[in-house]
Write a structure and sequence with these properties.
It contains one helix and ten strands. By secondary structure, it is mainly beta. It has a single domain, classed as Beta Barrel (Lipocalin).
Amino acid sequence: MKRTLACMGAFTVAILLLAGTVYAAPNLTGEWKLSLAKSDYGAFPSPLAMTRTVTHNGINLALHSVQKSAQGEVASDYKYTIDGKESVNKVQGGESRGTAQWIGDKLMIENAREFQGVTLKEKQIWTLAPDGKTLTVDSHVTVPNGEFDVKQVFEK
Protein backbone atom coordinates (compact mmCIF):
# COMPACT_ATOMS: atom_id res chain seq x y z
CA MET A 1 0.00 0.00 0.00
CA LYS A 2 2.79 2.45 0.90
CA ARG A 3 4.52 1.67 -2.38
CA THR A 4 1.30 2.28 -4.32
CA LEU A 5 0.76 5.66 -2.61
CA ALA A 6 4.38 6.66 -3.28
CA CYS A 7 4.02 5.75 -6.95
CA MET A 8 0.74 7.68 -7.20
CA GLY A 9 2.36 10.71 -5.56
CA ALA A 10 5.32 10.60 -7.97
CA PHE A 11 2.95 10.17 -10.91
CA THR A 12 0.87 13.19 -9.79
CA VAL A 13 4.00 15.37 -9.48
CA ALA A 14 5.16 14.24 -12.94
CA ILE A 15 1.76 15.13 -14.47
CA LEU A 16 1.78 18.55 -12.78
CA LEU A 17 5.31 19.22 -14.02
CA LEU A 18 4.30 18.31 -17.55
CA ALA A 19 1.26 20.57 -17.28
CA GLY A 20 3.45 23.43 -16.14
CA THR A 21 1.59 24.01 -12.88
CA VAL A 22 4.47 23.23 -10.49
CA TYR A 23 7.12 25.90 -10.52
CA ALA A 24 9.18 28.08 -8.27
CA ALA A 25 7.94 31.64 -8.60
CA PRO A 26 10.91 33.96 -9.13
CA ASN A 27 11.66 36.76 -6.68
CA LEU A 28 11.53 40.10 -8.48
CA THR A 29 13.17 42.22 -5.76
CA GLY A 30 15.77 44.71 -6.93
CA GLU A 31 16.49 48.03 -8.52
CA TRP A 32 15.79 47.76 -12.24
CA LYS A 33 17.00 50.31 -14.80
CA LEU A 34 15.30 50.58 -18.19
CA SER A 35 17.45 49.65 -21.19
CA LEU A 36 16.17 51.95 -23.93
CA ALA A 37 18.28 50.10 -26.52
CA LYS A 38 16.52 46.79 -25.77
CA SER A 39 13.02 48.20 -25.23
CA ASP A 40 10.40 48.83 -27.90
CA TYR A 41 7.81 51.57 -27.43
CA GLY A 42 6.56 51.44 -31.02
CA ALA A 43 4.81 54.70 -31.92
CA PHE A 44 4.47 55.60 -28.23
CA PRO A 45 7.09 58.13 -26.99
CA SER A 46 9.75 56.50 -24.82
CA PRO A 47 10.99 58.04 -21.59
CA LEU A 48 14.50 59.45 -21.28
CA ALA A 49 15.15 57.11 -18.34
CA MET A 50 13.26 54.92 -15.88
CA THR A 51 14.13 53.09 -12.69
CA ARG A 52 11.86 50.61 -10.92
CA THR A 53 12.51 49.48 -7.39
CA VAL A 54 10.65 46.26 -6.66
CA THR A 55 10.19 44.78 -3.21
CA HIS A 56 8.80 41.26 -3.48
CA ASN A 57 8.10 39.32 -0.29
CA GLY A 58 5.88 36.26 -0.60
CA ILE A 59 2.59 37.39 -2.14
CA ASN A 60 3.33 41.08 -1.47
CA LEU A 61 4.75 43.19 -4.27
CA ALA A 62 5.61 46.89 -3.97
CA LEU A 63 6.72 48.85 -7.00
CA HIS A 64 8.27 52.33 -6.96
CA SER A 65 8.96 53.83 -10.41
CA VAL A 66 10.72 57.03 -11.35
CA GLN A 67 10.37 58.04 -15.00
CA LYS A 68 12.14 60.96 -16.65
CA SER A 69 10.82 62.56 -19.82
CA ALA A 70 11.12 65.88 -21.61
CA GLN A 71 8.22 67.10 -19.43
CA GLY A 72 10.05 66.28 -16.18
CA GLU A 73 10.20 63.49 -13.64
CA VAL A 74 7.23 61.44 -12.40
CA ALA A 75 7.28 58.99 -9.49
CA SER A 76 4.61 56.38 -8.85
CA ASP A 77 3.99 53.69 -6.25
CA TYR A 78 1.91 50.54 -6.56
CA LYS A 79 1.25 47.69 -4.13
CA TYR A 80 -0.26 44.33 -5.01
CA THR A 81 -0.89 40.97 -3.50
CA ILE A 82 0.05 38.29 -6.01
CA ASP A 83 -3.07 36.23 -5.48
CA GLY A 84 -5.47 37.69 -8.03
CA LYS A 85 -7.27 39.91 -5.48
CA GLU A 86 -7.96 43.50 -6.43
CA SER A 87 -5.58 46.19 -5.21
CA VAL A 88 -6.39 49.90 -5.23
CA ASN A 89 -3.52 52.36 -5.66
CA LYS A 90 -3.57 56.15 -5.55
CA VAL A 91 -2.11 57.57 -8.76
CA GLN A 92 -1.84 60.96 -10.38
CA GLY A 93 -5.37 62.09 -11.14
CA GLY A 94 -7.20 59.36 -9.18
CA GLU A 95 -6.85 55.69 -8.45
CA SER A 96 -5.82 52.54 -10.24
CA ARG A 97 -7.55 49.20 -9.67
CA GLY A 98 -5.63 46.09 -10.56
CA THR A 99 -4.75 42.49 -9.90
CA ALA A 100 -1.52 40.53 -9.93
CA GLN A 101 -1.10 36.77 -10.25
CA TRP A 102 1.37 34.16 -11.41
CA ILE A 103 0.86 32.52 -14.79
CA GLY A 104 3.45 29.77 -14.54
CA ASP A 105 6.73 31.58 -13.80
CA LYS A 106 5.48 34.88 -15.29
CA LEU A 107 3.74 37.63 -13.36
CA MET A 108 0.59 39.11 -14.89
CA ILE A 109 -0.57 42.53 -13.69
CA GLU A 110 -3.81 44.03 -15.00
CA ASN A 111 -4.78 47.64 -14.22
CA ALA A 112 -7.58 50.03 -15.09
CA ARG A 113 -7.87 53.69 -14.20
CA GLU A 114 -9.79 56.81 -15.14
CA PHE A 115 -7.68 59.75 -16.29
CA GLN A 116 -9.25 62.99 -17.46
CA GLY A 117 -12.55 61.21 -18.14
CA VAL A 118 -10.92 58.42 -20.13
CA THR A 119 -10.49 54.76 -19.11
CA LEU A 120 -6.96 53.41 -19.52
CA LYS A 121 -6.39 49.65 -19.29
CA GLU A 122 -3.07 47.84 -19.19
CA LYS A 123 -2.09 44.18 -19.05
CA GLN A 124 1.55 43.49 -18.21
CA ILE A 125 3.45 40.21 -18.37
CA TRP A 126 6.69 40.25 -16.36
CA THR A 127 9.35 37.70 -17.29
CA LEU A 128 12.54 37.30 -15.29
CA ALA A 129 15.52 35.90 -17.24
CA PRO A 130 17.06 32.68 -15.85
CA ASP A 131 20.15 34.60 -14.65
CA GLY A 132 17.90 36.97 -12.64
CA LYS A 133 19.52 40.07 -14.17
CA THR A 134 16.99 41.01 -16.87
CA LEU A 135 13.30 41.71 -16.35
CA THR A 136 11.12 42.04 -19.46
CA VAL A 137 7.71 43.67 -19.14
CA ASP A 138 5.42 43.17 -22.14
CA SER A 139 2.42 45.51 -21.91
CA HIS A 140 -0.80 45.74 -23.87
CA VAL A 141 -2.48 49.12 -23.40
CA THR A 142 -6.07 49.92 -24.31
CA VAL A 143 -7.35 53.50 -24.59
CA PRO A 144 -10.57 54.75 -26.23
CA ASN A 145 -8.86 55.59 -29.52
CA GLY A 146 -6.89 52.36 -29.87
CA GLU A 147 -4.56 49.75 -28.51
CA PHE A 148 -0.79 49.39 -28.53
CA ASP A 149 1.97 47.20 -27.20
CA VAL A 150 5.13 48.22 -25.36
CA LYS A 151 8.14 46.07 -24.49
CA GLN A 152 10.31 47.32 -21.63
CA VAL A 153 13.57 45.61 -20.76
CA PHE A 154 15.04 46.34 -17.34
CA GLU A 155 18.46 45.35 -16.05
CA LYS A 156 19.79 45.05 -12.52
